[in-house]
Amino acid sequence: MGSEPSGPPTEGDDRPVNDVHSSSASPAAVRDPRVLVIFGATGDLARRNLFPGLFRLFRAGLLPDDLRIIGSGRRARGDVQDFRDRLGEGVREFAGEVYDAGRWAEFAARVDYVAATTEDGSELAEALRRARREAGERARPLLYLSVPPSIAEEMVRMIGRTGMADGASLIMEKPFGTDLASARALDATIAAYVPEERVFRIDHFLGLEAVRTLLALRFGNGIFESFWNREHVASVVIDVPEALGLEGRAAFMESTGTFRDMVSTHLCQMLGVAAIEPPARLDADGLRAQRLSLFRALRPLDPAETVFGQFDGYRQEEGVADDSTVETFVALRAWVDNWRWRGVPFLLRTGKALGSSERLLTVRFRAAPLALFDGGRGAPRADERGGDRPDALSLELSDRPLLRLRLGAKRPGAALDVAPGDLTFRPDEAFPDDEPLEAYEKLLLDALRGDQTLFTGAAEIERLWEVCQPVLDAPPEPLPYARGSWGPRAALDLAAPDGWAVPDA
């Protein structure tokens, strides 16, 4: 490491990008050639995440040397260079730390654009066949469907009808349907063209570095696994607030709502990671089997233990109906009826226009059986919002997570006063030479490698819709809440007595 040039890489500098993924711990580069087709390539997800992630992987030498990428959208574009330039603007904005014009031009030369719709994909199908012929016999196509759920099933039928699905793997973006019936219909359509072992249902929360940090914490350290159960855990809090409002996504919010967008996907998946039993092996089969078992023990959600909210001014947003009852906030209590977790509440909360964007998974432990220090001025106790409660383990749900264990600790001095104190661990500080992959980078790389470990299966998705169906059938009336607040009062009461874990909540 010491012999490498110092300072950031400059334009045209081909040395490894050490501040991206050049450490020896990085995943092995993909060697099998692929043709990657991205449906929805002109959309926001492609601009913010997919192409910046692919470019980072390219700079780190983790993509196949002969990978071909075909972007597709509904509208024809006369000049593919215009499409590449627009992608380059997104990469400069969202992956600026690795961008240089020379390397981008080299990467962009791999990228083509062909329009396709659910009715007509013939031109795209021909472009894919041509790309496969040029890449050789080992070129296996990977089809990424970043499309609205309303057209996902029709798009799958189109790629099957045109032959694009032959021998291909398929990445599906969430939400996977809008309820149990639509999820089952979508899964049946997918199964008609692509076998389950080649389907990658992507939930980017499962690609977060925090998820693998939690797996390592639980299953790599006997001390934690020994008290990870109802005898020692008082509650588990999964808190994913967003300070942003709609940010131009009114159409998506109006058609989907926060419950379908976040609870049936991200939050339930985080619950699954936190609560699963130890697998026999940390691979796709082992983790999927344990997640499915856990979800089968997850009690169907109760509308009486669910709070919906809508932030003040939502109905005045452009693209929102004047009488909209769409929820922009959800808080609920969930229960897992198995031996390990029976009686332990899982508190889930998410919403738009809230007081913070800090995402935390917090495990709160039961109090000591005898309060020996409850009379001191620094005695450990829950404050009015629960944030300073001792005996809690929290993990930031991010790609650079902070792990914090909050304990009751003695204050220095003559008196035996006890107050909350923290033990903290940051993987990026403990291992400064190793850079994490961002969530979409990790999942794109795993899909290219055929590794389904961090992807969900059809049975898991359908079970989660079964769990969510009671709330979909009888949704609570959305309660108003102020922008920058923490949602309706009823949601704060739902988490009593300890409150939510995010600061100021």
UniProtKB/TrEMBL annotation:
Superkingdom: Bacteria
Annotated Glucose-6-phosphate dehydrogenase C-terminal domain residues: 215-499
GO biological process: glucose metabolic process; pentose-phosphate shunt, oxidative branch
GO molecular function: glucose-6-phosphate dehydrogenase activity; NADP binding
Active site: 266 (proton acceptor)
Top-rank EC class of the record's enzyme: oxidoreductase
Chain positions covered by the region annotation Disordered: 1-26
GO cellular component, one term: cytosol
Involved pathway(s): Carbohydrate degradation; pentose phosphate pathway; D-ribulose 5-phosphate from D-glucose 6-phosphate (oxidative stage): step 1/3
Residues bound to substrate: 204, 242, 261, 352
EC number from the UniProt entry: 1.1.1.49
Residues annotated as binding NADP(+): 40-47, 74, 174
Annotated Glucose-6-phosphate dehydrogenase NAD-binding domain residues: 37-212
Keywords: Carbohydrate metabolism, Glucose metabolism, NADP, Oxidoreductase
Chemical reaction(s) catalysed: D-glucose 6-phosphate + NADP(+) = 6-phospho-D-glucono-1,5-lactone + NADPH + H(+)
PANTHER family: GLUCOSE-6-PHOSPHATE 1-DEHYDROGENASE, GLUCOSE-6-PHOSPHATE 1-DEHYDROGENASE G6PD
Protein task: Catalyzes the oxidation of glucose 6-phosphate to 6-phosphogluconolactone.
Family: Belongs to the glucose-6-phosphate dehydrogenase family.
Protein name: Glucose-6-phosphate 1-dehydrogenase
